[in-house]
Hints:
Structural class: alpha/beta
Strand order of the largest sheet: 8-7-9-6-10-11-12-13-14-15
Largest sheet: 10 strands, mixed
Number of helices: 15
Number of strands: 21
Distance between the termini: 49 Å
Strand content: 15-25%
Helix content: 25-40%
Radius of gyration: 22 Å
CATH superfamily of the largest domain: Mur-like, catalytic domain
Number of domains: 3
Amino acid sequence: MNGENPRFDFAAPVPPLEELGAIHFIAIGGSGMSGVARIMLARGCRVSGSDAKQSPVLAALEAEGAEVHVGHDAAYLDGIDTVVISSAIREGNLELAAARERGLRVLHRAQALASTMAGSRRVAVAGANGKTTTTSMLTVALQHCGIDPSFAAGGELAKHGTNAHWGTGDVFVAEADESDGSFLVYRPQVAVVTNVQPDHLDFYGTFARVEEAYAAFVASIEPGGLLVACHDDDGSRRLAETARAGGTRVLTYGWSPEADVRLSGVAFRGLTSHTTLTGPDGATHTLRINIPGRHNLLNAAAAYTTAVEGLGQDPRRVLDGLFGFTGTRRRFEPKGAVAGVSVVDDYAHNPGKVAAVVGTGADLVQAGGVGGRLLVVFQPHLYSRTRDFAAEFAAALVPADSVVLMEIYGAREDPVPGISSQLVADALLQQRPDADVEVISSWSAVAQAVADRAREGDLVLTVGAGDVTMIGPEILRALGER
């Protein structure tokens, strides 16, 4: 791929919401799709959708007023005006093929979301890592400021139990997905870039094209708007420098003393993280969050900068709101503890995310001071990503005391001969010859294998974007039976 999406023109204006008529979502149960559907339902649209299997998400959408179907059938398109899909829906899908044959309007989910944002002050949060947490933190902080923002995030906010909401305020916060180029549709007043890294090479082909896409994203900021960018990330910093030279208003954040919003010093107390934040005006504040990790303090700094400098909110109320943030589902989410062994689940699926979550786990184990170990269960996501970044994944796993690798979760990709989780295991042993690493091909055997390894004081991380998330409860059950 070359970073161009031949199925959609993301630079074209999106149709007004009132022109979409009756709307049908193919694979409505997905995290991104369900969020757009929720907002459209709240806007009074007629919404239907189909998915391959029943799920709590489908049940929730039905309760909110959607007509949902399990399985796919062209008959579901009767009376439909607009069909919404994600890039994962292939042209051979029978509902999509029928929509094309009937000449129905077909929108990417980002285009559908953008159609709901007209008239709002739009904030789009992009980046290889941290965008879901930053979107969620910003949303909670704005709520604490008395605003009821609309939002669409890639994960459920723990406190709210939903990934999307149509608010009464004039701010709309959207997580902007770069994986298929669709983040160009939003035309934000404030754009946030947490980092620019070589990911989604199955679509872009090269890192240079990834950088070109982010440059186009920044160019889509409305005139007079603001770019909030992480100074600590090389790609984001280069993007900020270019944007500033071109006349865009830019504010950077980070641990670097050259950042406009600077963090300095860090302390962890249990799962709480503390740092000092210095704003562009030189005023200092204590930034506290109730989730662990230096990377999450960076995410909080991005949310702070956006809320205060981009949306004019009171700094102290924003800081109080950030301290009240309780996390996002599948972002370092505690699943429970049995026999002194704690289990945490995380969605991390690229090298930067995995490095952040494993590093945070290692810090927590070390801070515990009771001789506990860090055990990581990692399920690589996509054959192409595993092929391209096996060495980087291995480097991210080095701090772990024990690693269990599940087989690759292919998601939208078909298997590739010769590409397996063994690539990551071999790379880890090259970087750390004494590493305790095992590839377990049987999904059902993983939980017991981890429970057999674990002992009191250990922390177990289940990591990946696939069905590894279901392993945590199984590990806890196995520990209980032991």
